[in-house]
Structures are given as structure tokens and as C-alpha cells.
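Methods — Computational structure assignment.
A single polypeptide chain was analysed. Its primary sequence is given first, followed by the predicted tertiary structure written as C-alpha cells.
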Amino acid sequence: MKKRIEDKTVLVVDDDDMNLQVAKMVLERKINCRVIISDNGRDALEILRGQDVNLVLLDIIMPDFDGIETLAQIRADEFFGGVPVMMLTASGDVDDIRRAAALGVTDYIKKPFMPADLADRVTKKLNAIDEYATEKILLVGENRIALKDMRRTLEDSFLCDVSIAVSIAEAVEILRGGEFNLIIACADMKFIDGFRLMKFLADDRFSAVPLVLTTPEAFAEMLAKISAADNIDAEPAEKISAAAKTSPDTAETVTDRKNFVDVVTTAIGYRLNVSV
């Protein structure tokens, strides 16, 4: 049975007391989850040793024992090493992204955060932490606002975990840090070298990962299909399956990895064989 958000616990780690209090207030009031706060990494590790935590929001830049060091200690622990982590950062430093990605974390919340965005991102992450299989998608494009809208669409429709990259360097570091089921690139990119990205993806490590090209217009079309699905009370996976039934190859559910890719690509774009 899927665990309710009200029964889940979020640990927020940040050396700034104002950030801690704002995050705690927003998450408790807007999504009604339990929130624990810590102003340093060492205390956060002690909390994880003593309590059941479903998600950690971890600041990167902290004195003495920073977020990356804390994350490394979390991943090395045999008891809570698998806890999901989202990084809180005011920096877009590629080195920070690389170091976190090497430890399996590709989710970031930029500071200062908007309360609605924080609540939305944490809600989606918590909803994905249950018995359903979580598929991982990487979105690549130049317009961060458009990518955020696309991420919201995908997460709402497929119960998947979506990361964003706005440069080739960022995409490469994220891909090196974890396994992805699908890569979606905006077809109208002007400043990102799509051929360079495809060349990188042709490497044996990534050649089996499907690559899809799409546009904001295709996403709008997908939203219309979802809205028109017959059963408005169905689970998101059932809605998108119903919306994509025009394809004879589309499966009825997205719990299987191949079916998941088939449904997404049918709905939003064209799949490329990047190994060619």
C-alpha cells in the first residue's frame, strides 16, 4: 500500500537558521509531512541513525562538514545509505554537481527557493518513494523555466524521477553519476550542441538508453491527451496509458521499463537509436 505523505518524514539540513525555519513551515503547512531540522551534517547523521527518515534535503555549502561530505557519509552507511537525498544549493558549480552525482544524487533545489516550488518538488519526490518502481528521466534543454514545466508534466503523469540539465557539461556529469531509463532533449536547442550530446551517448555505457526529441508544443499535446482520458479518477500511469492507446504497440501500464519508454515516447516525441 502506498504510504501517505502525512506519514513520511523529511530531514532538512542547512547551516542557515532562517532557511531551516522557512522550509519546516512550508513543508508542514503545505504538504503536512513531518519535518526534522539540523544545522550541521554531523547532527544530521545522528538523526538518521536514530529515526526513520524518508527524504533528506541537504545544503551543499556548510562550514566544517559540508553537504558533499555529509552525503558521502550517508551513502557509506549500511543502514540508511539508500535514503533519497535532494541537494539544496545557491550555487550552480559544475564541480558540486559532479561530486554529488558521483554519490548518486542528481536532484537539486536552488536557493533561495520559492515556497510553492519547494512544496511541489518535495511532494513529487515523496510520492515516488513507495512500492511503485521509480523510473529516471534526464531532460536536456536551454530554457530552465520550460524544462521545469516539462518536469512537472512528466512527474505528474508517470510517477517518475526527473533531472534537468541546461548544458552539455551538466548533462554529462549527471549521466555519469547514475542510471537513467530515458533521456529527453528539446529539438529546438540553439546553443547546446546536440550532436556532441549524441556522440557522448553513443558510448557503450549509455547507448542502450533511449533518447527522445520533443518540443514544448508536443508536451502541450500530451497534456491535452491526459486531460481527455476517460477515467479522470485513475492513477497517473493509467491516465497516460489511456491517452496513448492510439498506438498498437502501447502497453496498458507503465510499470515495466520497456512499456514505460513506449508510452512516453508515443506521447511526446520521437525515439532515436543513439548507438548508430
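Note: Residues 132-276 form a domain with the Rossmann fold fold (CATH 3.40.50.2300).
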